[in-house]
């Protein structure tokens, strides 16, 4: 467990964005998806400095899960404490996970609610859904509504073949090997939801919706002990 960053400047604001009041977007390109149903993703979070720069997911009324490579944007932030894995490797994006503790709990409602952590690791072929703000196709204007896309978990062998030597046990792939439908780099930290649980966090990938290159996600089930330990030590 790493020491939380020092909070000295009141520059960072945390927003739980709920449908249909969504106005922030960035580079997360949902290719081949569609607008989410209102209140269907009450766990979605937006990290922003007046503009959206990363996604996140609410896992209880005071903690948000995101990815460690968004941490540099949080340095010096007020209103939160952030905890990232000491083993995080910015070159390989291994251990790319971060917890954010809000100074004040949120009020849980129909529109703002946490999502459960996984009870196990996902198998290849499991149907999931990823959501984010961004393009619905390459080289078009970004929509102002949250976009959703159904994607399956990719078999480990196909994931490794797509990215030889780059996939660790703390990563998983999701998407379509024939391309055309995908989440893309940019709005990192947004959740991959499977069977009502958060199983992945958008981390990295090769291009957008390219054949043979599925999206790579943080494999949340590999960090359950660290999450539970961090929450217990900082409650």
Automatic annotation (TrEMBL):
SUPFAM superfamilies named in the record: Trypsin-like serine proteases
Protein location: Secreted, Extracellular space
CDD domains per record: Tryp_SPc
Every Peptidase S1 domain range: 30-232
Alphabetized InterPro entries for the sequence: Peptidase_S1_PA, Peptidase_S1_PA_chymotrypsin, Peptidase_S1A, Serine_Proteases_S1, Trypsin_dom, TRYPSIN_SER
GO biological process: proteolysis
Alphabetized UniProt keyword annotations: Disulfide bond, Hydrolase, Protease, Secreted, Serine protease
Enzyme Commission no: 3.4.21.4
An example molecular function term from Gene Ontology annotations: serine-type endopeptidase activity
Reaction catalysis annotation: Preferential cleavage: Arg-|-Xaa, Lys-|-Xaa
Entry superkingdom: Eukaryota
GO CC terms, sorted: extracellular space
A Pfam family annotated for this UniProt entry: Trypsin
Protein name, as recorded: trypsin
Organism: Kryptolebias marmoratus (Mangrove killifish)
Phylogenetic classification of the source organism: Eukaryota, Metazoa, Chordata, Craniata, Vertebrata
């Amino acid at each position: 467990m790493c020491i939380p960053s020092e909070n000295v400047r009141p520059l960072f604001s945390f927003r739980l964005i709920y449908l249909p009041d969504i106005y922030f977007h960035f580079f997360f390109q949902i290719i081949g998806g569609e607008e989410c149903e209102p209140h269907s993703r009450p766990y979605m979070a937006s990290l922003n400095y007046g503009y959206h720069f990363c996604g996140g997911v609410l896992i209880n009324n005071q903690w948000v899960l995101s990815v460690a490579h968004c941490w540099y944007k949080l340095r010096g932030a007020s209103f939160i404490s952030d905890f990232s894995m000491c083993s995080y490797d910015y070159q390989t994006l291994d251990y790319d996970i971060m917890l954010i503790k809000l100074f004040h709990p949120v009020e849980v409602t129909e529109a703002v609610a946490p999502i459960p952590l996984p009870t196990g690791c996902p198998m290849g072929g499991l149907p999931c859904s990823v959501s984010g703000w961004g393009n619905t196709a390459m080289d078009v204007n970004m929509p102002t509504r949250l976009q959703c896309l159904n994607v399956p978990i990719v078999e480990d062998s196909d994931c490794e073949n797509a990215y030889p030597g780059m996939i660790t046990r703390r990563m998983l792939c999701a998407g379509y090997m024939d391309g055309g439908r995908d989440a893309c780099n940019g709005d990192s930290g947004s959740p991959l939801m499977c069977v009502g649980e958060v199983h992945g966090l958008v981390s990295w990938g090769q291009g957008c919706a390219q054949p043979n290159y599925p999206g790579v996600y943080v494999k949340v089930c590999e960090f359950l002990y660290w999450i539970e330990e961090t929450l217990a030590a900082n409650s």
